[in-house]
Write a structure and sequence with these properties.
By secondary structure, the chain is an alpha+beta fold. Helices cover about 25% and strands about 30% of the residues. The protein has 13 helices and 43 strands. The longest helix is centred in the last third of the chain and has 48 residues. The two termini are about 45 Å apart.
């Protein structure tokens, strides 16, 4: 934003307040209605309103900036309201309602009888008509004074809709001006004052009209073709009647490379005129001979512009100034390609002009899309802003934690929980959301899965919304696992009537070659009622498990195993064995099945579920850790179908073993390595494309020499580089898919750890404060930004939780060897490259994650010992998986002994992380931040 603002001098509102104005609606010119007259402002509207203003400036006196005394009247006005409106009713010369929309206004000598008359006529362009008016001032005999009226002189009916028009002494005539109208098909219609009119079509195909301007010095027309080429045509060639004698080609052309928003022509010397082209991204200045004077690259989106010459063109000191308005409302003034001033406009205009009004020469005239007409000047009153000093005080974590607790306590005191319950009850009463999953059918949508086994299937999700009151807007959004695709993820309904029903149906099917981490599909319904109050309602439904897996023989061995213990009440509700839990995969006539193998339909990997014969224990095992969360979540949900209604006493399901942290770190490492390779391929592709552009330019230079032998070497380099670019593109596509799959697998492992911690002895023995931090950290949604990876975004979070909060170790926090929070590698200033910085962040993240989760596992081992010691029937006799051999395995004593030893000894032999990860922490070593007195000193 600019430091200075455009000062208001005169302002009014045009009669039409609707957005009916554009860049052709404003015209500033001297109409010569009286002697010594200043410029008048003509405004046309799409609704047909035509207004002529002549600001008198009788009350306007510019502040005396040279006055030094504070009591000076000019300075008093300066200290007052800088945007005071000095509009007078007498400033309005004319307001008339025309029967047709006004799409263009101009003034000039458009009649043959006006050679000796200094007054100018007004040309008004309608969509199908061109009208010429004479402005007549009638002297009044009453107190109200003179008044002005429009006298129609003649008009021309147009055969086709008009787009714009221009004027000028076509053919070099003296004392007269002709008109040229451009139609929507880019054809030109010329009108002379003698009633002669003819139509011409320029060369090449023209489907998009663009502004046309007349160059007086060379008697030529300039316009931009639909191919984004600036072309110049002689008037004599266009006006030639016989097609055989006409020259169809332009006398010169120049590639602009973008659509021209506006054109402007000015004569800057006796021998040269310039054409200024405002493009969508560039400001181009070309001489009337086709030579480029300068090109200014714009780092903003331009809205409109105005060019003018300071001084007379025959003077040596004449200067060309360009004013451009950006989309943010900034006014930028350039002298050639150098910016000389910048100011902020109070409103974003659609038309810009310059006028010499009474009391203010060189005024800035702006018109916005709603008809607000403003005359301003570049004042010298800046908007002063002092940059506050940087807070260089070292960050104290203890003090920040106290402030955070104080703010949370203040928020709790100011929030009434009863309001939330009342709002939720009103939401449930106003909108009813029902979800239904239909049976699976063969999939008909394209996927990224290449399977040769069982065909993929899809299922239909039906969402029914019943509304009991009038709603302004209703939006439905489906959220699901990233490996599953939805045909349409959102629906939007507007102006929903009361007691109506809306139906929303989509198809869900596997899309990526990865097993999803969860079967949950969440449908969010957000609506806004007529009082503009927004409410959100959510419902969750589970996809069928057979959509992703099929039954297969159970496996004997596996690298990863998770053991669950179910309460007697949970098993009494569902039954014993795997048949009542997985009826879609088990044979109902084969008796009570104790082992079940499931194979993924998308990647072919297997997972096995084993039920103990004499105890209430289950085990899930697989060679791939990312396959376990899907089956684990399904088993937990089927053992406890109503998780919100947990009976008192022993919890229904308990996870006894948490996977090692090294496996989670391994998935993070795979994701980091793949992302690093992706960045390397993107860098190579950028270099190769740069070489391709260089070879193409060299090829064009050699081609102009018209020597085929000189093209051989460049053509060979071009072909090799093209093959290299194509190879890199294919590799980049493959690598991006691999990174996406690694994100899905990493999210699945994070979801597995979250399930294990939530249903472990830590989650069922009062460790709610620990689980809240773990749930926030172990999020199943893994997203990489353009600049940072997922590990880099999690690094500050992990480090903060590792040093403060309930997951902090008191002994580690008192050591003086720990670095402070504002370390150089966290606040890096660009002294190392991006790859080195990413590697450092990944190493730190892995270190802190190991340290924190090791303490969590130690606390979990302590809680498990307490649970095993207090429960009856625990110990070696309660583990009897070896009593029921699997179809492929007759003995699993070693596995059960290892599992029992792992439950009794904790995670001290799991992995060799630093900071005493093998020693489980006592419960007294965990920090409780429920009170301020519990904070570390």
């Amino acid at each position: 934003m600019s430091l200075f603002k455009v000062r208001n001098w005169w302002k009014t509102q045009c009669p039409t307040v609707e957005p009916s104005y554009d860049s052709f609606s404003l015209h500033c010119a001297r109409l010569c209605l009286e002697e010594g007259e200043k410029d008048s402002i003509v405004v046309g509207c799409h609704s047909g309103q035509l207004c002529i203003y002549q600001p008198s400036g009788q009350r306007n006196e510019l502040p005396d900036l040279d006055a030094e005394t504070e009591g000076h009247p000019a300075n008093q006005r300066l200290q007052g309201d800088a945007f005071e409106n000095h509009f007078q009713p007498s400033d309005v010369l004319l307001e008339v309602m025309l029967p047709l929309p006004v799409i263009g206004v101009s003034s000039g000598k458009f009649t043959t009888a006006s050679r000796n008359d200094p007054r100018q006529q007004l040309a008004v362009l309608h969509p199908m008509r061109l009208c010429i008016f004479q402005i007549v001032t009638v002297e009044g005999i009453a107190e109200h004074g003179d008044y002005t009226k429009l006298v129609p002189l003649y008009d021309h009916a147009l055969a086709k809709p008009a787009f714009s028009f221009c004027q000028g002494p076509f053919g070099g005539v003296k004392g007269r001006e002709f008109l040229c109208v451009q139609h929507l098909d880019s054809s030109l219609r010329f009108f002379e004052q003698d009633g002669i009119s003819y139509e011409r079509m320029l060369a090449t195909d023209r489907h998009l009209p663009s502004p046309v301007r007349y160059v007086v010095r060379t008697d030529c027309f300039v316009t931009v073709a639909p191919s984004w080429v600036l072309e110049c045509y002689r008037y004599q060639d266009i006006a030639e009647a016989q097609e055989a004698l006409r020259r169809h080609d332009p006398i010169w052309s120049l590639c602009v490379g973008e659509y021209a928003l506006d054109l402007s022509v000015h004569q800057i010397s006796s021998t040269e005129s310039v054409i200024v082209v405002l493009g969508e991204n560039n400001l181009l200045c070309v001489s009337d001979t086709g030579k480029v004077r300068f090109i200014k690259k714009l780092d903003y989106s331009p809205i409109c512009f105005h060019a003018f010459v300071v001084g007379w063109y025959w003077e040596p000191g004449a200067r060309l100034l360009l004013t451009v308005v950006s989309e943010s409302g900034s006014l930028l003034i350039y002298e050639n390609d150098q910016i000389v001033w910048s100011a902020q406009l109070p409103e974003i205009p659609v038309a810009l002009g310059r006028a010499n009004v009474s009391g203010l020469p060189g005024a800035l005239v702006t018109l916005d899309q709603t008809g607000s007409l403003t005359i301003g000047y570049l004042g010298s009153e800046p908007e002063l802003f002092k940059v506050p000093a940087l807070n260089l005080v070292p960050l104290e974590l203890d003090r920040c934690q106290r402030e955070l607790l104080a703010l949370e306590r203040e928020i709790r005191a100011g929030v009434d929980p009863s309001d939330a319950s009342i709002a939720n009850a009103a939401t449930e009463r106003d909108v009813t959301l029902e979800l239904a999953i239909d049976s699976c059918i063969p999939c008909t949508h394209p996927t990224n899965i290449s399977t040769s086994g069982a065909p993929l299937e899809m299922c239909r999700l039906s969402v029914t919304v019943r509304v009991s009151l009038n709603l302004e807007m209703l939006q439905l959004t489906v959220a699901l696992d990233p490996s599953v695709r939805c045909t349409k993820e959102s629906f939007l309904f507007r102006d929903v009537l009361a007691n109506s029903t809306e139906l929303f149906e989509v198809w869900l099917y596997p899309y990526e070659a990865a097993t999803p981490a969860s079967l949950a599909v969440t449908v969010s319904c957000s609506y806004t009622n007529k009082q503009s109050i927004t409410r959100v309602l959510q419902r969750t439904v589970s996809l069928p498990l057979q959509l992703f897996v099929k039954a297969c023989p159970a496996s004997k061995e596996a690298n990863h195993k998770i053991t669950l213990t179910a309460s007697s009440s949970a098993l009494a509700a569902v039954g014993t064995g795997l048949n009542p839990l997985f009826p879609e995969f088990c044979n109902p006539e084969g008796g009570s099945q104790t082992a079940l193998g499931l194979q993924s339909l998308v990647d072919g990997r297997r997972v096995t579920i084993v039920a103990a014969k004499n105890t209430n224990r289950f085990r899930i095992q697989s060679d791939e850790l990312a396959l376990l969360p899907l089956v684990l979540e399904c088993l937990l949900k089927r053992l406890n179908p109503e998780p919100g209604r947990t009976p008192k006493g022993r919890p229904p399901i308990t996870v006894n073993i948490v996977p090692p942290v090294s496996e989670l770190a391994n998935h993070f490492r795979i994701h980091h390595d793949l992302r690093r390779e992706l960045k390397h391929l993107e860098t190579e592709l950028e270099i190769a494309t740069g070489q391709m552009r260089l070879f193409e330019r060299r090829f064009v230079v050699k081609l102009q020499d018209r020597s085929l032998r000189a093209l051989d070497g460049v053509l060979l380099l071009l072909k090799r580089n093209h093959s290299h670019v194509a190879k890199l593109c294919q590799m980049l596509k493959t690598m991006r898919q691999a990174v996406k799959l690694s994100q899905i697998h990493l999210g699945a492992v994070l979801h597995l750890f979250s399930l294990c911690y939530c249903h472990s002895a830590l989650g069922t023995s009062g460790g709610t404060k620990y689980l809240e931090c773990l749930r926030g950290l172990l999020s199943s949604t893994v997203i990489d930004s353009t600049e940072q990876s997922y590990e880099q975004m999690l690094l500050p979070v992990v480090r903060f939780l590792e040093q403060t909060g309930p997951l902090r170790n008191v002994l580690d926090g008192t050591e003086g060897s720990e670095p402070t929070f504002d370390e150089p590698y966290l606040l890096d200033t660009g002294t190392v490259d991006e790859n080195t910085r990413a590697a450092q962040h990944h190493q730190l993240f892995e270190k802190y994650l190991h340290r924190m989760l090791d303490r969590v596992n130690g606390q979990l081992a302590t809680a498990s010992k307490a649970t095993l010691g207090s429960s009856s029937g625990s110990g070696r006799n309660s583990v009897d998986f070896e009593d029921q051999p699997l179809p492929e395995a007759a003995n699993e004593d070693d596995d059960e002994e290892e599992a029992e030893r792992s439950e009794q000894e904790g995670t001290q032999s799991d992995h060799g992380a630093a900071d005493g990860a093998g020693n489980p922490l006592m419960a007294s070593e965990w920090v409780n931040y429920e009170k301020l007195s519990d904070l570390p000193s």
